[in-house]
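quick one before i forget lol
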Amino acid sequence: MDGQTGGGNAAAELFRLDGKPSVAQALPLALQHVVAMIVGCVTPAIIVSGAAGLSPQDSVILIQAALVMSAVTTLVQLYPLLRGKKISIGSGLPVIMGISFAYVPTMQAVAGDFGIAAIFGAQIIGGIVAVIVGIFIRQIRKFFPPLITGTVVFAIGLSLYPTAINYMAGGVGSENYGSWQNWFVALVTLTIVTGLNHYGKGIWKLSSILIGIIAGYAVSLCFGMVDFSSVSDASLFQLPIPLHFGVEFEVSSCVAIGVLFAINSIQAIGDFTATTTGGMDRMPLDEELNGGIVAYGICNIVCPLFGGLPTATFSQNVGIVSSTKVVAKRVFGIAAAILLAAGLIPKFSSILTTIPSCVLGGATVSVFASIAMTGVKLVTASPMNYRNTTIVGLAVALGMGITQANAALASFPAWVTTIFGRSPVVLATIVAIILNLVLPKGPEDHAIEIMKKEGAG
């Protein structure tokens, strides 16, 4: 009887924020979080390295930095560097941070036009923007209702589709682009990911993307599509190299990425809220939101100095917290330690660079689809009246339309093209915000606002 009670008390440690579960209890749960996010963490780095035309060695360094910086930013969120009522650095909440897909379309454009150093310079400015948003979150939040954030997320998902399709075809510029072998491998990968998402349970469902990539990788090996030369050249251990890629402050890139940081700072509120409501049955405290967003900004000021691309909270890990109710920070600390160890081993990072583009395309197209559908869910949380459909429709139409019409801004200065003509996300965001401020609200919109105020009161 006593043994059962003791076992129950030990298990209860998993469901306390400051609980101290044993390593045997925490390790499998930590691995579950790593499996669920590691592909999403490194894929943006792989895509950006391709857009920037990096060498295999530099691609390994970029992936290595992605893993290391994701681990560091996760630890800062878990164990705040400063806690106070007015300002904090770190939320203290059980979240996993990783390299975000939200910035990929804009980063591809910046890397293609100005090089990867311009991404890191813009990221530093974006980090400063995020810190400001975190400090003044109460005042700024009203400008980004779900209708606006949903429009932005929807535009991000749509803008990533061409990347996924080009990868499924083998990657633009490859000798066998569009070959049947590429499409076959991509569709095998996509079929497995989709099947596990709908029919799998437990770890099979959570690791569907990883399993799909492993299966697609095995098929591509049979076709002789994998080159291991970069693995043999990689070292066994290496620390991130400070300023290896340099930092360049290009104004138009800073504006484009800075706008995205403002939006994603607000979007992070949703992940923090989902974490506390799903895992701890409460709303996040003001100091937790403040600290989480400020830490997000500060980490993204530091990460570029070591080659780390923009990080954000990972929603798939928020989903795991909500389903398991496991919130012990020790579990997430172990997950961060695993990411850190993986990032310090270039051999591991170099293996990731050998994954064929068609495999990545088949695995990520469903991710990009889910991003777009998340945006739709946020948008439809508001009444789809004429005003709101005008905001969403015009924002997405102008954002997607102008970027797809390559010569639409040809007579404008280069900085205009960089900000508004390369990625649809920035233009869609600006249009949505302006329309939301200037278009008159109907009676139902005012009724919803009154109900929200009464509920908050």
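fyi Confidence is low (pLDDT under 50) at residues 1-6.
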